[in-house]
Amino acid sequence: MQKGSNNRNKQRLKVARLHEKVSNQRKDFLHKQSRQITNAYDCVCIEDLDMKAMSRLLNFGKSVSDNGWGMFTTFLRYKLEEQGKKLVKVGRFFTSSKPVLFVVTKMQKRKILR
Protein backbone atom coordinates (compact mmCIF):
# COMPACT_ATOMS: atom_id res chain seq x y z
CA MET A 1 0.00 0.00 0.00
CA GLN A 2 1.34 3.35 -0.99
CA LYS A 3 0.75 6.62 0.76
CA GLY A 4 -2.44 8.26 -0.40
CA SER A 5 -3.97 5.08 -1.85
CA ASN A 6 -7.60 4.20 -1.17
CA ASN A 7 -6.72 0.88 0.48
CA ARG A 8 -4.31 2.62 2.83
CA ASN A 9 -7.00 5.14 3.81
CA LYS A 10 -9.51 2.32 4.42
CA GLN A 11 -7.06 0.52 6.69
CA ARG A 12 -6.17 3.75 8.47
CA LEU A 13 -9.86 4.35 9.20
CA LYS A 14 -10.29 0.77 10.46
CA VAL A 15 -7.38 1.17 12.86
CA ALA A 16 -8.69 4.54 14.03
CA ARG A 17 -12.12 3.00 14.75
CA LEU A 18 -10.51 0.18 16.74
CA HIS A 19 -8.45 2.65 18.79
CA GLU A 20 -11.57 4.68 19.50
CA LYS A 21 -13.47 1.55 20.53
CA VAL A 22 -10.73 0.54 22.99
CA SER A 23 -10.63 4.08 24.37
CA ASN A 24 -14.41 4.11 24.86
CA GLN A 25 -14.31 0.69 26.55
CA ARG A 26 -11.64 1.91 28.97
CA LYS A 27 -13.58 5.07 29.78
CA ASP A 28 -16.78 3.08 30.30
CA PHE A 29 -15.05 0.65 32.66
CA LEU A 30 -13.40 3.46 34.64
CA HIS A 31 -16.69 5.37 34.92
CA LYS A 32 -18.47 2.25 36.20
CA GLN A 33 -15.76 1.40 38.73
CA SER A 34 -15.50 4.98 40.03
CA ARG A 35 -19.30 5.18 40.38
CA GLN A 36 -19.38 1.88 42.27
CA ILE A 37 -16.64 3.02 44.68
CA THR A 38 -18.28 6.43 45.11
CA ASN A 39 -21.64 4.89 45.99
CA ALA A 40 -20.11 2.42 48.45
CA TYR A 41 -17.78 4.66 50.49
CA ASP A 42 -17.88 8.10 52.13
CA CYS A 43 -14.11 8.56 52.15
CA VAL A 44 -11.70 7.01 49.65
CA CYS A 45 -7.93 6.93 50.18
CA ILE A 46 -5.66 6.28 47.21
CA GLU A 47 -1.90 6.13 46.92
CA ASP A 48 -0.26 8.83 44.83
CA LEU A 49 1.58 6.63 42.32
CA ASP A 50 4.45 7.68 40.07
CA MET A 51 3.45 5.88 36.87
CA LYS A 52 6.48 7.07 34.86
CA ALA A 53 8.90 5.62 37.39
CA MET A 54 6.92 2.38 37.58
CA SER A 55 7.03 1.91 33.83
CA ARG A 56 10.79 2.52 33.75
CA LEU A 57 11.84 0.52 36.80
CA LEU A 58 9.53 -2.48 36.62
CA ASN A 59 10.05 -3.15 32.90
CA PHE A 60 6.32 -3.16 32.20
CA GLY A 61 6.67 -0.49 29.55
CA LYS A 62 3.47 0.83 28.05
CA SER A 63 1.18 -1.51 30.01
CA VAL A 64 1.70 0.57 33.17
CA SER A 65 1.27 3.94 31.51
CA ASP A 66 -1.64 2.70 29.41
CA ASN A 67 -3.86 1.65 32.30
CA GLY A 68 -5.62 5.02 32.74
CA TRP A 69 -4.75 5.62 36.41
CA GLY A 70 -4.82 9.41 36.04
CA MET A 71 -8.17 9.27 34.29
CA PHE A 72 -9.53 7.00 37.02
CA THR A 73 -8.45 9.35 39.81
CA THR A 74 -10.01 12.28 37.94
CA PHE A 75 -13.33 10.43 37.56
CA LEU A 76 -13.21 9.37 41.21
CA ARG A 77 -12.45 12.90 42.41
CA TYR A 78 -15.27 14.65 40.58
CA LYS A 79 -17.83 11.96 41.44
CA LEU A 80 -16.92 12.08 45.13
CA GLU A 81 -17.09 15.90 45.12
CA GLU A 82 -20.54 15.80 43.50
CA GLN A 83 -21.82 13.73 46.42
CA GLY A 84 -19.98 15.72 49.09
CA LYS A 85 -17.59 12.87 49.92
CA LYS A 86 -13.82 12.92 50.40
CA LEU A 87 -10.89 11.73 48.34
CA VAL A 88 -7.61 11.50 50.24
CA LYS A 89 -4.35 11.07 48.34
CA VAL A 90 -1.72 9.31 50.42
CA GLY A 91 1.88 10.09 49.54
CA ARG A 92 3.82 7.26 47.93
CA PHE A 93 6.50 7.43 50.63
CA PHE A 94 3.99 7.65 53.50
CA THR A 95 2.56 4.16 53.09
CA SER A 96 4.25 1.39 54.99
CA SER A 97 4.15 -2.36 55.13
CA LYS A 98 3.21 -2.37 58.81
CA PRO A 99 -0.55 -2.52 59.43
CA VAL A 100 -0.91 0.48 61.75
CA LEU A 101 -4.18 2.38 61.86
CA PHE A 102 -4.32 5.92 63.23
CA VAL A 103 -7.67 6.95 64.63
CA VAL A 104 -8.32 10.59 65.37
CA THR A 105 -10.76 10.96 68.26
CA LYS A 106 -13.06 13.92 68.85
CA MET A 107 -10.42 15.38 71.18
CA GLN A 108 -7.91 15.30 68.25
CA LYS A 109 -5.70 12.78 70.07
CA ARG A 110 -4.10 10.04 68.03
CA LYS A 111 -4.39 6.46 69.14
CA ILE A 112 -2.50 3.61 67.55
CA LEU A 113 -4.45 0.40 67.07
CA ARG A 114 -2.65 -2.85 66.31
Walk me through this protein's architecture.
The protein has 114 residues and is of the alpha+beta class. Helices cover 53% and strands 16% of the residues. It is built from 4 helices and 4 strands. It has helices at 6-40, 51-57, 62-65, 69-82; strands spanning 43-47, 86-90, 101-104, 110-113. The strands form 2 sheets. Strands 1-2 form a two-stranded parallel sheet. A two-stranded antiparallel sheet has the order 3-4. The chain is flat and about 55 Å long. Residues 103-114 have low confidence and may be disordered.
Q: Count of DSSP E strands?
A: 4
What shape does the CA trace take?
Answer: flat
- Indicate the structural class: alpha+beta
* Quaternary structure state of the chains depicted: single chain
What proportion of the residues is helical, as a percent range?
A: 40-55%
The largest sheet has its strands arranged as: 1-2
Q: Return Rg in Å.
A: 21 Å
In short:
The chain has 114 residues and is of the alpha+beta class.
Record the SSE blueprint.
Blueprint: H1 6-40, E1 43-47, H2 51-57, H3 62-65, H4 69-82, E2 86-90, E3 101-104, E4 110-113
Parallel strand pairs: 1-2
Antiparallel strand pairs: 3-4
Helix pairs in contact: 1-4
Brief descriptors of the model:
single chain; 114 residues; alpha+beta; 4 helices; two-stranded antiparallel ribbon; 4 strands; flat
